[in-house]
Amino acid sequence: QVQFVESGGGLVQAGESLRLSCAASGIAFSINTMAWYRQAPGAQREVVATISTGGITNYADSVKGRFTISRYNAKNTVYLQMNSLKREDTAVYYCKATSLGYWGQGTQVTVSS
């Protein structure tokens, strides 16, 4: 059974940081490119960052220089370090293996000014 469990969201003030975690199970984690997505109220889900099996990362322009994606294959976990948070980062954040069609429940990030 494929499962992604996101955690680490919360309510923070603008300029603060959060670290999201996503524990994956039921997949061959180390051979999958992983990604973080987010969906703000009334908006479409968008990709935030990806990390390949070899550790190559890509970021949406809106988060470049502020967010860092990483992975720890031994724990089947992918992380998203979010610094200098802005109000527009408010969304539900999801992780996903890019080649698979499964989604977790997501974790809510709310940034107040």
Mean pLDDT: 97
- Major beta-sheet overview: 6 strands, mixed
Distance between the termini: 40 Å
Structural class: mainly beta
Strand order of the largest sheet: 2-10-9-4-5-6
Estimate the helix proportion, in percent.
Answer: under 10%
Describe what you observe in this structure.
The structure is a single chain. The protein has 113 residues and is an all-beta fold. It is built from no helices and ten strands. The strands form two sheets. A six-stranded mixed β-sheet has the order 2-10-9-4-5-6, with no helix packed on it. Strands 1-3-8-7 form a four-stranded antiparallel β-sheet, with no helix packed on it. Strand 7 and strand 8 (77-82) form a beta hairpin.
Quick structural gist:
The chain is mainly beta and 113 residues long.
Which properties best describe this structure?
113 residues, mainly beta, four-stranded antiparallel sheet
Question: Helix and strand layout, with pairings?
Answer:
Elements: E1 3-7, E2 10-13, E3 18-25, E4 34-39, E5 46-51, E6 57-59, E7 67-72, E8 77-82, E9 91-97, E10 107-112
Parallel strand pairs: 2-10
Antiparallel strand pairs: 1-3, 3-8, 4-5, 4-9, 5-6, 7-8, 9-10
